[in-house]
């Protein structure tokens, strides 16, 4: 029995395609990539069993001619596990679609927020460094009374009377 | 005796899960009682196993009566029995906490009819991983616990949990595939997956092959154990889950990875080829993890980062490859499982009490709930390694082992470990001084507005919102504002909200981690069962200090067994010649 080059080549191609798909943002592609990787690994297990032989059934073949049955048992277990997890991931994809009408991995808001915080803590911010309208009420250097704040706001956002703006207060951010 | 009991920690939770699923949501009370009983039984069995394994040494059974190298082998030695006991203890504590939470919430957040069976399956997977005597069974154990953890992490299917869950699932899938591929290569090279047999056969392989197999296994396990640079998934996914789920994940799942690393480095590849690499990884894990914790403002995220950071201590102990180092690592694993679970449970209580886990939004918890403050303070000091507690003993053991090693790299790690310990104290005490100690009126609440600003994009960010109730008000006014009675303050705040609405064309949104109206909410009394189970866990962590002597003794004997390797191998083959 000669070793075949086909199996390693297929395994390699499957791994390459699987990794490529796994790196995608779209979850369906990620799932497909995972399936390819799983199949590649199963083939790897199969080829780990050595050269091919007859089916390992007692009475059907002599023990010397049989192929190794242990990797086949391992593969069956691995297939069942992959199958179950693929079903679960599909359910997650569906749920994600229901929730946000898209199935890509979102940006982590917390990460972005941490990255934005140059002044680390709100406690550490010196009120004197802020623009007058940003300073807390009753701050010692806040000579800007309410009407001054209103005026500076009016300058910044001319045409919009800050107290009369009537936006729905709990409108959710559009995704 | 030991042979009869060995399969029970796997079988009991699995059967219990089936029964709990059948009982279903129709009889929640029966379901709860059932799962608590099952876990109590597992705990009892595990304690008996530990006592027997410590007295008589390791033992093994081959499931289904297949001859040894072929069938599935379950092995109990001191290490696995010790891990089982700790795992069963924290699982029971967390389950009781979850029962208390479920009863208090009316099961809205955690659909309890699914929670209990899944939780039991998770414990079965953890137990299977600890007992597994061959690599493939270890893989199956991992898959059982991971699949259960996917369900638990995305429980309820809210947008935040799905987002966090996807990261976790994909990373876990990748590590599983890597592990399975490593098993395939190990089998191709040696013709067996039985770990006792591998212990002999792997040593005969060429050095390059050994190195490849070892590094593949270590990478797969390091992802699960969250060793830097493979740890980025952890702080991203753990904080969004329900409190009991996060607690059990933080305590157990990463430690299963650490356990697998211990087995790889002692039983399979005792040559110490990658010890240097592991030491650098341990150093990076400790330092990078704890710097992450210091930068965070959410209690659960802080705890997640300290979790990553302290994995570094365990990897350090393993990489020393000495009995003292391993003993320190084992003791630290036990300590850390208990302490991290407890702290996450406390974070769950804080969220209930304060309405948030963001330290910028919390305040005055020490006066509002002195009991909660004590429940946080004791394990927090333990985590930081303040002298009387077990955290100090574990760190001391590891640092002594590092100094005893004598090389320059271990000494660098000793220094890194000491710095990490101090920074842990900093991160932990910041939570204490903000969430618990300061008056509630001083909480700036800036976080949500920052978030809204950050979401709107870089050009429109208006800077943090000054809190109207903060800063230089006379004490009585401050108090009035704190109660939400300061009309002037409220008016200004409303104006500010309109201002940010104009400036960013958006309105503040809650970030899914908690509600931002924490201070306006009336204080709810904490459910008694939740407090009682958390208190019990705190007592357990303090108890670890009291029994530290005998515990360290077991850890040292386990480490000696691991270094020796013959107890494990002869337990599997029953003294026969290893084929």
From TrEMBL, chain A:
Pfam families recorded: Oxidored_q2 (PF00420)
Species, as recorded? Blastococcus saxobsidens
Where does the protein principally reside?
membrane
Task: Spell out the PANTHER family in the cross-references.
Answer: ANTIPORTER SUBUNIT MNHC2-RELATED (PTHR34583)
The name this protein carries in UniProt is: Multisubunit sodium/proton antiporter MrpC subunit
Q: Which family does it belong to?
A: Belongs to the CPA3 antiporters (TC 2.A.63) subunit C family.
Q: Where in the cell is it found?
A: Cell membrane
Per the UniProt record, which residue ranges are transmembrane? 6-23, 30-50, 70-94
Automatic annotation (TrEMBL), chain B:
Which regions are flagged for Basic and acidic residues bias? 489-498
Top-level division of the source organism's lineage: Bacteria
Q: Please state what the protein is called.
A: Multisubunit sodium/proton antiporter MrpD subunit
- Give the record's GO biological process terms: ATP synthesis coupled electron transport
Domain (NADH:quinone oxidoreductase/Mrp antiporter transmembrane): give its ranges. 132-415
The alphabetical list of record keywords is: Cell membrane, Membrane, Transmembrane, Transmembrane helix
| Lineage, uppermost ranks | Bacteria, Bacillati, Actinomycetota, Actinomycetes, Geodermatophilales
Q: Where in the cell is it found?
A: Cell membrane; Membrane
- The regions listed as transmembrane in this protein's record are 30-53, 82-100, 112-132, 138-156, 168-191, 211-234, 241-262, 277-295, 302-323, 329-350, 362-386, 406-428, 529-555
Q: How does it sit in the membrane?
A: Multi-pass membrane protein
The reply to whether Transmembrane figures as a keyword in the UniProt entry is: yes
Q: NCBIfam families attached here?
A: PRK12665.1
What GO CC annotations are associated with the protein? plasma membrane
Q: What main location does UniProt list?
A: membrane
Region annotation (Disordered) maps to 454-498
Instruction: State the Gene Ontology terms under molecular function.
Output: NADH dehydrogenase (ubiquinone) activity
Name the family.
Belongs to the CPA3 antiporters (TC 2.A.63) subunit D family.
């Amino acid at each position: 029995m000669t070793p075949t080059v086909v199996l390693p080549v297929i395994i390699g191609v499957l791994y390459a395609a699987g990794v490529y798909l796994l790196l995608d943002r779209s979850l369906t592609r990620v799932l497909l990539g995972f399936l390819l990787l799983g199949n590649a690994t199963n083939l790897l297990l199969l080829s780990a069993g050595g050269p091919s032989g007859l089916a390992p059934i007692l009475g059907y073949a002599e023990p010397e001619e049989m192929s190794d049955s242990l990797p086949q048992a391992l593969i069956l277990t691995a297939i069942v596990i992959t199958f179950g997890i693929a079903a679960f991931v599909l359910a997650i994809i569906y749920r994600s679609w229901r929730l946000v009408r898209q199935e890509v991995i979102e940006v982590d808001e917390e990460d972005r927020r941490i990255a934005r915080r140059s002044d680390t803590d709100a406690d550490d911010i010196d009120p004197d460094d802020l623009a007058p309208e940003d300073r807390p009420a009753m701050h010692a250097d806040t000579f800007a009374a309410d009407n001054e704040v209103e005026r500076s706001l009016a300058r910044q956002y001319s045409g919009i009377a800050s107290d009369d703006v009537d936006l729905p207060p709990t409108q959710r951010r559009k995704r | 005796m030991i042979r009869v009991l060995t399969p029970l920690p796997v079988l009991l939770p699995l059967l219990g899960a089936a029964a709990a699923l059948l009982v279903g949501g129709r009889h929640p009370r029966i379901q709860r009682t059932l799962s608590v009983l099952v876990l109590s039984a597992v705990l009892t069995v595990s304690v008996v196993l530990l006592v027997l394994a410590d007295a008589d040494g390791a033992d093994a059974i081959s499931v289904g009566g297949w001859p040894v190298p072929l069938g599935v082998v379950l092995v109990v030695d001191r290490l696995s029995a010790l891990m089982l006991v700790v795992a069963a203890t924290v699982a029971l504590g967390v389950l009781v906490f979850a029962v208390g939470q479920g009863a208090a919430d009316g099961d809205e957040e955690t659909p309890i009819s699914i929670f209990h069976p899944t939780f039991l399956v998770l414990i079965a997977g953890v137990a299977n991983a600890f007992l597994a005597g061959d690599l493939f069974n270890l893989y199956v154990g991992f898959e059982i616990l991971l699949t259960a953890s996917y369900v638990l992490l995305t429980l309820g299917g809210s947008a935040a949990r799905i987002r966090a869950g996807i990261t976790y699932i994909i990373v876990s899938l990748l590590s599983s595939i890597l592990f399975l591929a490593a098993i395939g290569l190990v089998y191709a090279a040696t013709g067996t997956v039985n770990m006792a047999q591998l212990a002999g056969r792997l040593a005969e392989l060429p050095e390059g092959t050994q190195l490849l197999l070892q590094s593949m296994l270590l990478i797969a396990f390091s992802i699960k154990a969250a060793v830097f640079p493979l740890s980025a998934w952890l702080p991203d996914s753990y904080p969004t889950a329900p409190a009991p789920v996060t607690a059990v994940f933080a305590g157990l799942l990463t430690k299963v990875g650490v356990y697998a690393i211990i087995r790889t480095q002692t039983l399979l590849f005792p040559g110490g080829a990658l010890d240097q690499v592991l030491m650098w990884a341990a150093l990076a894990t400790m330092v990078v993890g704890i710097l992450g914790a210091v930068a965070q403002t959410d209690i659960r995220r802080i705890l997640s980062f300290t979790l990553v950071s302290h994995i570094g201590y365990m990897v350090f102990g393993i990489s020393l490859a000495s009995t003292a180092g391993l003993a320190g690592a084992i003791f630290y694993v036990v300590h850390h499982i208990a302490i991290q679970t407890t702290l996450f449970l406390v974070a769950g209580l804080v969220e209930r009490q304060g309405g948030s886990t963001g330290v910028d939004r919390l305040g005055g918890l020490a006066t509002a709930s002195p009991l909660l403050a004590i429940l946080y303070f004791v394990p927090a000091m333990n985590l930081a390694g303040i002298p009387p507690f077990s955290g100090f003993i574990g760190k001391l053991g590891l640092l002594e082992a590092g100094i005893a090693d004598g090389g320059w790299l271990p000494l660098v790690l000793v220094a890194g470990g000491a710095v990490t310990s101090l920074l842990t104290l900093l991160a932990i005490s910041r939570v204490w001084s903000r969430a618990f100690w300061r008056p509630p009126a001083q909480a700036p609440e800036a976080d949500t507005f920052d978030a809204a600003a950050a979401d709107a994009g870089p050009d429109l960010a208006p800077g943090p919102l000054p809190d109207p109730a903060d800063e230089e008000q006379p004490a009585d006014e401050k108090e009035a504002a704190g109660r939400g009675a300061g009309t002037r303050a409220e008016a200004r705040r409303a104006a500010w909200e309109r201002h940010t609405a104009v400036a960013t064309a958006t309105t503040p949104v809650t970030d899914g981690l908690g509600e931002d109206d924490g201070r306006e909410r009336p204080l709810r009394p904490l459910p008694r069962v939740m407090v009682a189970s958390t208190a019990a866990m705190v007592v357990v962590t303090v108890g670890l200090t009291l029994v530290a002597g005998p515990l360290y003794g077991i850890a040292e004997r386990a480490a000696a067994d691991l270094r020796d390797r013959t107890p494990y191998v002869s337990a599997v083959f029953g003294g026969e010649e290893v084929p």
